[in-house]
């Protein structure tokens, strides 16, 4: 009976030992694989976001991780596909620039449920605790500074005439759009002589801003200033103003700190911009991901990054930035 019993058990025992050894090898092999980081960006049709994406990926790679950039093309459905891809493919962290403050929440929550940390860059989602951390420009304070410069630099008119201006908004579903607008209006609305005659969205897009401003100028040819929620729109607005032959009469102001606008300021064209640092936000997000991989779990829900006013008054202080690029 014993002779019949043991021969049957020996192969099973050997199989168990083999599985334990193989499983141990697989675990060690998996642990030795570099972490994978997905960089999901709202759009790469804007040079500013290209810098954000490439800096995040480069910083992740410098830390020894693999990184892949995904372009959502300002489309929440495509963004959802990218998140599903990142989850199914086993990415270990997501560095995220949302397309929509509300619409992107569900994607962040899916990643959280899958155990994947999400670090938002520049744009936020409207859900406390969904993202592991959100690294954001201080858009409100930056546009308070723009608003102050705006009222200081547009020439006064006789008391009977209002100073007419236009505001070009970004994506209406993006909190940055409204934080910038609120910061700007917190200053300008305190000056009764300033009257906003039009407020319209151009989706942070240069070509759309060109078309929008061309249309506005037909209805309001006597405006004095245009405040744009980002620099791409400021360039489109200035192009429309130039085509109308009104560069002396109409002053254009942007926000972002894009190189082409900083160069335009240095050439005496666009009046000012708010200089954000996509590099700072991207590097911080990648470093936070690295800390997460090492076991850290206590991150600030929102990490503000300061914005600098760059204007025709202080552009000489930024000459090194222009030369560097």
TrEMBL record:
GO cellular component, as recorded: cell envelope
Family: Belongs to the bacterial solute-binding protein 2 family.
Organism for this UniProt entry: Larkinella punicea
InterPro entries assigned to the protein according to its UniProt record, in alphabetical order: Peripla_BP_I, SBP_2_dom
TM ranges: none
GO molecular function (one): carbohydrate binding
Signal peptide: none
SUPFAM superfamilies, A to Z: Periplasmic binding protein-like I (SSF53822)
Primary localization class, coarse: other
Listed name of the protein: D-ribose ABC transporter substrate-binding protein
Tagged with keyword tRNA processing: no
């Amino acid at each position: 009976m014993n002779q019949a019993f043991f021969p049957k058990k020996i192969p099973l025992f050997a199989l168990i030992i083999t599985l334990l050894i193989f499983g141990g090898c697989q675990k060690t092999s998996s642990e030795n694989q570099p972490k994978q980081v997905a960089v999901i960006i709202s759009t790469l049709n804007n040079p500013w976001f290209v810098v954000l994406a490439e800096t995040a990926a480069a910083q992740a790679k410098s830390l020894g991780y693999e990184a892949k950039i995904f372009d959502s093309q300002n489309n929440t459905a495509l963004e959802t596909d990218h998140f599903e891809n990142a989850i199914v493919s086993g990415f270990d962290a997501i560095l995220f620039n949302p397309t929509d403050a509300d619409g992107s929440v569900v994607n962040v929550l899916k990643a959280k449920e899958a155990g994947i940390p999400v670090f938002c860059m520049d744009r936020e989602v409207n859900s406390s605790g969904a993202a592991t951390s959100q690294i954001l420009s201080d858009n409100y304070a930056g546009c308070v500074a723009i608003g102050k410069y705006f009222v200081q630099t547009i020439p006064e008119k006789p008391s009977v005439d209002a100073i007419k201006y236009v505001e070009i908004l970004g994506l209406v579903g993006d909190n940055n759009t409204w934080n910038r607008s609120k910061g700007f209006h917190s200053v300008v609305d305190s000056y009764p002589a300033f009257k906003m005659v039009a407020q319209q969205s151009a989706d942070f897009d240069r070509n759309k801003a060109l078309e929008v401003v061309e249309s506005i100028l037909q209805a309001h040819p006597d405006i004095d200033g245009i405040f744009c929620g980002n620099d791409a729109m400021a360039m489109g607005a200035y192009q429309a103003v130039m085509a109308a032959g009104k560069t002396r009469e109409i002053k254009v102001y942007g926000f972002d700190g894009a190189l082409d606008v900083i160069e335009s300021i240095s050439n005496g064209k666009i009046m000012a911009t708010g200089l954000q640092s996509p590099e700072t936000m991207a590097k911080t997000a990648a470093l936070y991901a690295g800390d997460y991989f090492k076991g850290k779990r206590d991150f600030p829900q929102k990490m503000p990054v300061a914005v600098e006013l760059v204007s025709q008054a202080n552009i000489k202080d930024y000459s090194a930035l222009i030369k560097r690029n």
